[in-house]
Amino acid sequence: MHSLIEIIKASSFITMFVIVMMLLIEYINVITQGKLSNLRSTKLKQYVIAAILGIVPGCLGGFASAAMYSHGAISIGAVVATMIATSGDEAFVMFALFPIVAIGLHIGLALIGIAAGYCTDILFAQHKPSEHCCDGLVVHEEIPFSHYTAGNIISLWKNLTLSRASLMSLLVVALLMIVAGFFHQEEGFIKIALPVIISIAIIIVAIVPEHFLQEHLWEHVIKKHLVRIFMWTLSALIVIHLLVDVLHLDALIHNAQWIVLIVAGLVGIIPESGPHLLFVMMFAKGVVPLSVLVTSSIVQDGHAMLPLLAQSRKDFLLIKLINLIVGLTVGAIIMIAGY
After folding, report:
1. What span, in angstroms and rounded, lies between the C-alpha atoms of 203 and 168?
2. Which secondary-structure segment (H or E) carries 314?
3. For residues 80 and 113, is the Cβ–Cβ distance under 8 A?
4. C-alpha angle with apex 189: 334 to 6, nearest 5 degrees?
5. Per-residue pLDDT tens for 126-156?
6. Could you identify which of 134, 233, 286, 296 might form a hypothetical disulfide with 279, taking C-beta atoms 3.0 to 4.6 angstroms apart as the criterion?
């Protein structure tokens, strides 16, 4: 029972961090009118821009890259660069659990993505998108600074909606739990930064227009992501607990690292933000080495490839195959090096 309580607490902490960061990125994207996710450049710079899109936590940059590719604005190599660099929603979890390693990992993913994107365009110089499709990413009008007046903010609270009250309550309770030391696993950067980040999120929820709060924060971040992230995290932690603490298979997994690396690459093909969490958690617990995490991170891309899957299965499979080859190759090199 004690183990289950600790697992639920850990899952809640990770989910809280992920959701708060998603709230902030959603807000930044809207107030900049999508400039965060709509970077376009020349052919010479597109790989760097694509990699930058990829390392933005979440699927935002991946959707933007898929959208630009669908409209012929970037090459297939640039999409490869983005999808290698991105780790989807799992990036938030990595920054919550091992921030220093996560920073180094994402820098490395960006560099690998740039190189792989360049090589891809050499090999597939004549490749074009099969057909156009919808973006998979909606950018609304920016929130003008003229909105943030005392009168408008007071009006929001006089006509307080259930969504705003619920979201504010969740954030305040989360902040109080952090300050009171309810979660014991946070340390270092997270212990200092998380209360600040939550406080900023509380301010945003308190002052943003009702449309933004309802459409972006409540309908998108909370209703679509909160339960899913918590359940995936909880499931991954339970599986790891069973493997390591109940069945004591950590030694067996350690002796079968090459098999685990291949499995991590194959699981990464799934266009779903969630399965990769198992390998993130296993790395955080010291069950698998860095090479397995790198392979999984290179191949998987959260939901970012779904627009391309809807548009062209041929392009989807080609990009996934390229990323799988790159992921297994880089992971194998790192594993041979002893990591």
Report:
1. 9
2. helix 313-336
3. yes
4. 85
5. 766 655 444 444 444 555 555 677 777 888 8
6. 296
Radius of gyration of the chain (CA): 21
The rounded distance, in Å, linking the Cα atoms of 297 and 280 is 9
pLDDT (average), residues 264-283: 82
Q: Tell which residue, 39, 47, 44, 40, has the closest CA to residue 120.
A: 47
pTM: 0.73
Whole-number Å distance between alpha carbons of 50 and 45: 9
Q: Which class for 58: exposed (0-12), middle (13-18), buried (19 or more C-beta within 10 A)? A: buried
Distance, CA of 181 to CA of 115 (rounded, Å)? 44
Plot region of 302 (φ>0 → left; ψ -120 to 50 → alpha; else → beta): left
Lowest mean per-residue pLDDT among 24-33, 87-96, 219-228: 24-33
Percent share of the chain, pLDDT over 70:
80
